[in-house]
Amino acid sequence: MRELELPALTHSALSDRLIALRDEHQRLKGQGLRLDLTRGKPSPEQLTLSQPLLGMPGADGHTAQDGTDCRNYGGLQGLPELRATFSGPLQVPAEQLVAFGNSSLELMYECLVDAVLFGVPGSSAPWPREGRTAVLCPVPGYDRHFAICEKLGLDMIPVPMTETGPDMDEVERLVADEWVKAIWCVPKYSNPTAVTFSAETVRRLAAMETAAPDFRVFWDNAYAVHGVADADEPLLDILGLSTEHGHPDRVFVFGSTSKITAAGSGVAFFGSSPANVSWLLGHFAKRTIGPDKVNQLRHARFLPDAPAVAAHMERHAALLRPKFELIDTVLEKRLGGTGVASWTRPRGGYFVSLDVLDGCAARVVELAGEAGIALTPAGATFPHGKDPRDRNIRLAPSYPDLDELRDALEGLVLCVELAAVERLLAASDGTG
Ligand code: PMP
């Protein structure tokens, strides 16, 4: 622990510090590092946990439990046994769950495109034809959600994330406008803040009155079973609660096995009310004669029930836990008590959200890049890539091994301190 926080140092102390830090950064650049903390990809060790999938379903294994020949066309809603496995983890009755392609992001894109082209159950017209269309975006949030909105020309309204989920006072205020049609939510071990929505947040989302009768909650439960701590963080069943509160069609649930089995070769899920499920399947029916049931069958055999999923995820957690611990250790050692950084200590998910001194995030990313450490671009966690305070950086520790991760983090903390000292010096009047 330092004697003084960096912002309390005098001008001359900061100048001395800057010289030392620039020296250190110069040496870091000389190391020729090539490290990457950008995207939340599973590591090779994590992928190997699902190696048996590659030999499944096997030469004779093409028949599903109900006798379906998975080699043939059909079965638009996906294999019942796989839907049964994920019904519990995703909190959607199996008959209201669709198992589709290899990407939940694709399903989110499809739902938004269909809403824009045709409207959803309860719409009187396609969304844009009813006037301006806006989507609430809790921030910091998932850049790919924002990219879909940007692509489709939908307005994005940032809503601050709190420790319990999106600021619900703000959400309730905003949904009183009928052009606000949807909200993005990553309700469990959120990307990037690792927040799990509290019971009160979920209840309020389910119960709130919205001016738009066709308002939708895009419930992207990408990290439903991805705890890394000893105890799982519970999440209320929003689909059931919305139905109880008279809004059965409010929620679109999404999930996938991307970070359970093989990222890019997994299975994605959509869950919702019967009316929404028929709506989506109606659109699917025009673009495909059925999903890849052979992939679904091997997933159903590899993960025959929810306890099998939980046991498998415990093995993932064992690989991820030391990486999250290492982040906290390295950040705390150098940045603890400096007053120029705060970060999350995730109990699940894939990310650590780091807040540096206001106005410094882009500079930290630049300094790290000069030293061969790739970080997610500053601002990526905000709509249009613009963080109004230029302070948030998303760290993704899953892919590198522990040695690479330590090297990357030690470089990163230096860059955080250097950017802060540069900024503080620029702001100080030189009289200290
Ligand atoms: N949602 C969130 C919140 C994610 O973090 C990710 C992966 N980074 C996805 C969706 C993408 O999932 P999929 O592979 O199923 O498209």
Automatic annotation (TrEMBL):
It holds the Pfam family Asp_aminotransf. Gene3D superfamilies: Aspartate Aminotransferase, domain 1 (3.90.1150.10), Type I PLP-dependent aspartate aminotransferase-like (Major domain) (3.40.640.10). InterPro entries: AspAT_Ic, PyrdxlP-dep_Trfase, PyrdxlP-dep_Trfase_major, PyrdxlP-dep_Trfase_small. Keywords: Aminotransferase, Transferase. It comes from the Bacteria. Signal peptide: none annotated. The keyword 4Fe-4S does not apply. GO terms for molecular function: L-aspartate:2-oxoglutarate aminotransferase activity. PANTHER family: AMINOTRANSFERASE, PUTATIVE-RELATED (PTHR43799), ASPARTATE AMINOTRANSFERASE (PTHR43799:SF1). This is Aminotransferase. The lineage of its organism: Bacteria, Bacillati, Actinomycetota, Actinomycetes, Kitasatosporales.
